[in-house]
From TrEMBL:
Residue ranges crossing the lipid bilayer per the database entry: 118-140, 162-187
Keyword Membrane appears in the UniProt entry: yes
Gene3D superfamilies (alphabetical): 1.20.140.150
The protein's role, per its UniProt record: Claudins function as major constituents of the tight junction complexes that regulate the permeability of epithelia.
Protein topology in the membrane: Multi-pass membrane protein
Protein localization: Cell junction, Tight junction; Cell membrane
Name of the featured protein: Claudin
Family: Belongs to the claudin family.
Keywords: Cell junction, Cell membrane, Membrane, Signal, Tight junction, Transmembrane, Transmembrane helix
UniProt GO cellular component terms: bicellular tight junction; plasma membrane
Signal peptide positions on this chain: 1-28
Top-level division of the source organism's lineage: Eukaryota
GO molecular function, one term: structural molecule activity
Length: 188
């Protein structure tokens, strides 16, 4: 039972960590169409902004000036939280691999292996919370930006939606959290 639970938690943690890494690296956190005819489709990410012409499919991307340049708070905070979540999830995966019952590392001391799984669950929990805060922070800021345009009657047909990277970050964070719950609560 314990080995099956560990392998299940490992699979979920691995998939969720990949989701977190993809969310951090991709550039579609916020989607908006610049006009009511939807001639172009714009995606804003943590690292660049891309515009796709819907008629011919040509995509052009603009890199943000520099990592050290002044950026909006939502980008800086989300970058920081997502990178930290990625690092913690990677560390948790490495610890979890060593703590799995099916791995022969420290086979003679099962108590240490169980503690490694428990520690991996705690690290994964911390990473998932940071990733969820980063993703939700960005999503709330997108919602507030749209609400400000609507309240000042500057809406002009522009709509803002959460991009697939934002949803991927939220899904990866929730998956890491579920894996951490499996490792910390169900193993004992």
């Amino acid at each position: 039972m314990s080995a099956a639970l560990q392998v299940t938690a490992f699979g979920l943690a691995l998939l969720s960590t990949l989701f977190l890494l993809l969310a951090t690296c991709t550039d579609c956190w916020m989607v908006n169409a610049d006009d009511s005819l939807e001639v172009s489709h714009k995606c804003r990410g943590l690292w660049r902004e891309c515009v796709t012409n819907m008629q011919d499919g040509v995509r052009t991307c603009d890199q943000y000036d520099s990592i050290l340049a002044d950026h909006p708070v939502k980008i800086v905070v989300t970058r920081t939280l997502m990178i930290t979540a990625d690092l913690l999830a990677g560390l948790a995966l490495a610890t979890l691999v060593l703590g799995l019952d099916c791995i022969t590392f420290l086979k003679e001391d099962p108590c240490v292996k169980l503690k490694m799984c428990y520690g991996a669950g705690l690290i994964l929990c911390a990473g998932s919370i940071l990733g969820l805060i980063g993703s939700v922070w960005y999503a709330v800021d997108v919602y507030v930006e749209r609400a400000m345009l609507v309240s000042h009657n500057i809406f002009l047909g522009v709509h803002y939606d959460f991009g697939w990277s934002c949803w991927l970050g939220m899904a990866g964070s929730m998956g890491c959290f579920v894996a951490s719950v499996l490792l910390t609560c169900c193993l004992y």
